[in-house]
Model the fold of this input.
Amino acid sequence: MAESGASGGAVSISEVAEQAGVSVATVSRVMNGQGVVKPATRDKVLAAVEALGYRMNHLARNLRTAESRMLLTMVPDVGNPFYAEIVRGIDSVARQQGYFVLLCDTGADPGRERSYFDLLRTRRADGAICLDPDTVQHALAEEMNGVPWVACCEFDPDVAVPYVGIDNRAAAADAVRHLIAQGHTRIALINTDARYLYARQREAGMRDALAEAGLTLPAAWHVTVDSLDFDAGAEAARQLISRDEAPTAIFAVSDTLAIGVIRGLREARLAVPRDVAVMGFDDIAMAAQIDPPLTTIAQPMRELGETAARLLLQRLAQPQLAVPGVLLPHRLVKRGTA
Amino acid sequence: MAESGASGGAVSISEVAEQAGVSVATVSRVMNGQGVVKPATRDKVLAAVEALGYRMNHLARNLRTAESRMLLTMVPDVGNPFYAEIVRGIDSVARQQGYFVLLCDTGADPGRERSYFDLLRTRRADGAICLDPDTVQHALAEEMNGVPWVACCEFDPDVAVPYVGIDNRAAAADAVRHLIAQGHTRIALINTDARYLYARQREAGMRDALAEAGLTLPAAWHVTVDSLDFDAGAEAARQLISRDEAPTAIFAVSDTLAIGVIRGLREARLAVPRDVAVMGFDDIAMAAQIDPPLTTIAQPMRELGETAARLLLQRLAQPQLAVPGVLLPHRLVKRGTA
DNA sequence: TTGAAAGCGCTAACAC
DNA sequence: GTGTTAGCGCTTTCAA
Done:
């Protein structure tokens, strides 16, 4: 129904007003449920809206109200299941509050990130949630000051921006303690890019746990990869097992890496966890599917996203209010690999 | 560096004009590189822009030009790696053409889809790419007629909308022929929701291949699941192996399902492919990581996305031009499970 | 080559 | 309760 006015182009508010025999102000009032309108008038307007198939032009409304009802979400990699789950969390609270989310893949590239951030200054988005490395956040923080944004997972404590994340250092320490409790003393680390806060923090946590047990992390057991994909993990595993003295356990800072590690090990005819134990981080859905299922640290991804969105919405509502940083709990999930 | 005007709020074009001692029209011209402006004037304007830190308000521009430079992408599930890869393809060509993509998770729910589609009619997006079930596309096609959109993966040949996809029927037939070539005669199907075109087509393809070999698909070997997640696959596998006469091979219409199947089989102490062979569909990155690696049909996900975006852009550029449907090639990837 | 002015479709004072 | 009107920040004729 209601497709009559579709001939020319979009129906505007004034056409509705004319059809209903009222002013545009009245139409606006009923469309927004604001102000008082006599029921009879309201019905006339609604009838006209229906008859013409009127849809409000939000571009115009937003120009007037100076808001776009769009929330920008910048992630380093939309294909990574870890981020995908966070995005879902963000989306659910945003939509519930009448916002749409504009999802952008930055590839952790400051240039791309800057161009997306520009959406805020050009009024196409009201606020942003940034999941990019804290180092790139830091670089942009100064010029982005004044625009409403929050940090998720990655955050720079020195930048006065609301954030939500987990205690990566404590979580990594828990992970490594678990390995140690299984009797391992030769534990390797596969880490990413030190541009990421989590990478630095998880390494620190690992060293904490190692130190408690009087252990160390020799350079030979410390490999750094520049991507989180499966192949990077497999390649790192190959390197590790070719060392003179090979580790008996590997802690990978992400599940995707850990899953690649397991494949690499398998291709080298090494059994997990018998020959080498593997510990991941994140607890993506896939972790429970592989054989043996991956032992890992679970992050509350959904809540991370929900909280980030709430923080941002709160900041938009009360820009001057100081919003606290929040740390959510992690959890060790013991499965078959360690 | 250009952060002076940041005090109050955004700098507007008229402030730039004043600062440069020219009219707003001139500022507009230099901002858009249109019309001829004397180099000296242009420099004055640019200097003012720089000094004030001016960023154009796209909301206003878009209201004027009646375009938003946003492309809506509706997917049934952003968390599914298959869609994630397609989205990347879309994003890459969109960004290259100066468009942003608004990614929306519909959950294959017509209501949600309708509300997103509304972004088009309210001018917050210029066009849409829809990956939802062809049946929900069909339901909406009538009321969405007139708005520019294209279909990706799922499409209804009866709806005159440009589309890109693969030949699901031929691909599924290839998959099943492979199983038959391995000597299997008791082949089960795990399918989704018949709302999806691909589900119906893949089943038809399977029946084609079966018929060629004088085989059939008994009801007992045909299970339908209502989600594509791992657990659904595992549960379906459990059902299948509890049949009086259990199948020796399983064709799952998606890799995620197939991976769940393998886990289900493993939990039941059945070896893959020795006890039962498994064939997936899609070739998501994860397929190569599991043990044994998944044999599957590869879809050109990236190209699917890129093509969809190009089709849409083309349609936006020339609305009246008839855009053809395009079918991309698939490929059988033989690995360890069949 | 540049400027003045008329809107794009809507909201929000302010009148009546 | 409802209407009039002045913009929101920009683009785009049309004149000069």
Summary: Chain A touches chain B through 49 residues (CB under 8 Å).
